[in-house]
Amino acid sequence: MDWQQIFATRTTRMKASEIRELLKLLDQPDIISFAGGIPDPALFPAEAFQKALGDALTHNADAALQYSVSEGYGPLRDWIAAEMGRLDVPCTRDNILITSGSQQALDYLGKLMLSPGDTALVGWPTYLGALGAFNAYEPRYDKLDPETNRAAEDYAQAAAPGRVKFAYTSVDFANPTGRTLTGTMRERLLDLAEELDIAVIEDAAYQSLRYDGEALAPILAREIARKGDIDACRTLYCGSFSKTLAPGLRVGWVCGAQDVIQQMVLLKQAGDLHSSTLNQMAIAAVAEAQFDSHVARIRAAYRTRRDAMLAALEEHMPEGVTWTRPEGGMFIWLTLPQHMRGDELLARSLETERVAFVPGHAFFADGSGANTMRLSFSRTDADAIAQGIARLGRLISAA
Amino acid sequence: MDWQQIFATRTTRMKASEIRELLKLLDQPDIISFAGGIPDPALFPAEAFQKALGDALTHNADAALQYSVSEGYGPLRDWIAAEMGRLDVPCTRDNILITSGSQQALDYLGKLMLSPGDTALVGWPTYLGALGAFNAYEPRYDKLDPETNRAAEDYAQAAAPGRVKFAYTSVDFANPTGRTLTGTMRERLLDLAEELDIAVIEDAAYQSLRYDGEALAPILAREIARKGDIDACRTLYCGSFSKTLAPGLRVGWVCGAQDVIQQMVLLKQAGDLHSSTLNQMAIAAVAEAQFDSHVARIRAAYRTRRDAMLAALEEHMPEGVTWTRPEGGMFIWLTLPQHMRGDELLARSLETERVAFVPGHAFFADGSGANTMRLSFSRTDADAIAQGIARLGRLISAA
User: Fold this and answer.
1) Do B57 and A50 make contact, defined as CB atoms within 8 angstroms?
2) What is the largest CA-CA distance in chain B?
3) Contacts of A376 in chain B (CB under 8 A)
């Protein structure tokens, strides 16, 4: 049977993610992995989840195991709305949609806004999973660079005959670069969005994982400061519990204007009815009981690892290699000398040094960035980080 | 802000589901509801889930709370593959993709196959959630009627200049009609699919809920009998744990040719990475421990309710009203005299008789079927069924 003539045109743009394929390597015990970018399971609040799930099934099994509304579990949406308030985003549960992780938020935002041929503005590089989600809706991409923004007319012209629909950006300690948008860049991005009359997708998956420096107000908070009301805003904020509590439960959210949230509820209803009721209850209970103290604990652990990786890079990397110094998150971004290729280096590294990382070119919508790579420090202890970076430095020095 | 110029064209086809809106009524205690079509929570295996979740978090928390592969949890896919084998569908875990309920399977199958303007063949009426899922991919619909199939050329011609991509059908005790496709109809549907060279989506959400009569081999089993190998088949079977174990955990599956499953894994990866790891583990453990005995228990309970509803309809419905006599599932389909409208009747029923049901026209892709309605017997005990049908009979008799 020739499935190619049955499959929709969008499938030609959907390829296997190199990162997901790499995840399969993580189980080999002798590999030191800086790939992935997944939380350390030793830091999961497993006992708190066990209690929360037990409580839900003891006192509330009828609801916990039943169908529920597409918007999400009310008390969880209330908790998130309060948390958004602490980030200077005053809102109510009606501004919150629960999604199955922020990956689903990105999928639904692409589905909401992109018709084939529309343009999405994304960073060069940007989060690979965002490109994966958006690709299904067959957009064109243009390069968003908050440091050197082009004029709005340039973007609009490049998008013709389609239309620019949104700018997507990861604001804090971005995946893959570890970079944080400055306050000025956030304001400038808003200016550009106003001029183009487009939406802003603010990916804040790592927002809580700040290890030093001052927290910066989200783009959505800045827009509310300009306009006075979230329901007048064009920014859609995507949050996640995957980096703070646990990814395996698949709970994230979108926060934005009610008009958009209501339309997204319809997408959610048509897409999977709702996210797991039981998991939403468990997340709500654990967040209520210990979000701040738990996040403080994992911040301390990841800070140590970031410091270990930065120190090891300083010690072992040869001249000509540069890297970012993230104030939080899980990633450091390496730029190699122009003649080196991350993918070739990975193949050699797995063979001889047994160190894994992600070659950077996959994060570029145009396939550039061959001489870059992403290192994650989240799932490796400080000793292994030192050893792994030493091996990697040896490999790069010899390349 | 004018969101209409930002939203994709597909959003014009995505409207609020009347059924989901009706669900909000179910909480009013004096309403007897035959709407919904959701399981009775008194029949959930809550203790078994509590044990399974406790076990997963005691012995396997690192995996249960972590990211996992997009294909789904291996042991659950093995269990499902064995279960499919019992239905004469020999296959392996590589033929199984775990989805977040079968609603997500329908969404991803639409996403996989439909480009705007392609045609999907669906029943008149058909499952509302399937239309909701497919609508996002902007197809045209043509009427599938396994009793009076038109010639393949007719379908192909009507689809031009697009292409027919698949036929969607609910095989056993369908939502909304309660009807089951006979063996002959299943074979004929396969013949049509062969002639048109299209896929078949076999929605088997209610397959396990048979109360009497002989089980019929799924369409996929019949195609394997013809071709000898699932990987040569065009039928994609959608199963669900929502009607047997619990819907709140959102676990379903697609079973089909590896070529299709592999492409769907990419959609899943881009869509939400994977379904909840913890929930998949819990479903696997509960299914392993007591699927057959639990399903036997709920079958007995629902059978009593179906019998109560059929008896009450016989007693209370005036002449000119007809209904289906399902061998399983959760639904009976009523056809009213031509001049009556289900939606008007519902408005009056909620006002005076306090009985809820779903007007039938929403289940028709062309909006016809005004004089039909869907009654669910799954969530109401036999006494309340008798009382509710008596009230409904009174209302219809007076109309």
Assistant:
1) yes
2) 62
3) none
Enumerate the residues of chain B whose CB falls inside 8 A of the CB of residue A5.
163, 197
Verify that B300 and B354 share a domain, yes or no.
yes
From B290, B325, B351, give the residue that closes a domain.
Answer: B290
Asked if residue B24 and residue B57 are part of one domain, the reply reads no
**CA of residue B296 relative to chain centroid, distance:** 20
Q: Which residues of B touch A24 (CB under 8 A)?
A: 69
For A6-40, how does the pLDDT look when each residue is reduced to its tens digit (9 = 90+)?
999 999 988 776 655 665 666 678 899 999 889 99
- For the record, the structure tokens of B376 come out as 């669910």
* B107 to chain A: closest CA residue: A271
Q: Work out the minimum CA distance from B26 to partner chain A, whole angstroms.
A: 12
The structure tokens 């396997």 sit at B60
- Sheet with A331-335, strands from edge to edge, namely A322-323, A331-335, A372-376, A358-359
Q: A139: which chain B residues are within 8 Å (Cβ-Cβ)?
A: none
Q: In this structure, are B178 and B213 located in the same domain?
A: yes
- Crossing angle of helices A382-398/A277-316, nearest 10°? 50
Instruction: Give the domain CATH number at A225.
Output: 3.40.640.10
Task: Please check whether residue A209 is in contact with residue A329, taking contact to mean a CB–CB distance below 8 angstroms.
Answer: yes
Could you give the number of structural domains in chain B? 2
**At CA A115, angle to CA A111 and CA A120, rounded to 5?**
80
Chain B residues with CB-CB distance to A40 below 8 A: none
Give the CATH number of the domain where residue A388 resides.
3.90.1150.10
Cα B9 to Cα B12: distance, rounded to the nearest angstrom: 6
% of chain A with per-residue pLDDT over 70: 97
Task: Provide the token pair at A226.
Answer: 């300009």
My answer on whether A66 and A210 are in the same domain is: yes
| pLDDT on residue A18 | 60
Query: Which among B329, B332, B354, B359 has a CA at the least distance from the CA of B344?
Result: B359
Say whether both B340 and B191 belong to one domain: no
pLDDT digits (tens, 9 = 90+) for A332-341: 999 999 999 9
Q: Are B372 and B128 in contact (CB under 8 A)?
A: no
What is the phi/psi pair of residue A300, to 5°? -60, -45
The nearest alpha carbon in chain B to A2 belongs to B197
| Domain match, B146 and B189 both | yes
Give the closest-approach CA distance of B393 to chain A in angstroms: 29
ipTM above threshold 0.90: yes
Candidates A15, A234, A266, partner chain B, best to mutate (most B CBs within 10 A):
A266
| Cα three-residue angle B123-B180-B246, rounded to 5 degrees | 95
CB B235 within 8 A of CB B261: no
Judgement on whether residues A147 and A58 belong to the same structural domain of the protein: yes
Confidence band, pLDDT 50/70/90 cuts, at residue B29: confident
Helix extents (H) in B197-274: 219-227, 258-272
**Helix, strand or coil for residue B170?**
strand
The span from the CA of B82 to the CA of A351, in Å, is 38
Nearest CA in chain B to A115: B8
Contact A175, A331 (CB under 8 A): yes
CA angle B159/B164/B165 to nearest 5° reads 155
- Which residues contact residue B160 at a Cβ distance below 8 angstroms, ignoring those fewer than 6 apart? none
Domain that holds residue A171: 46-290
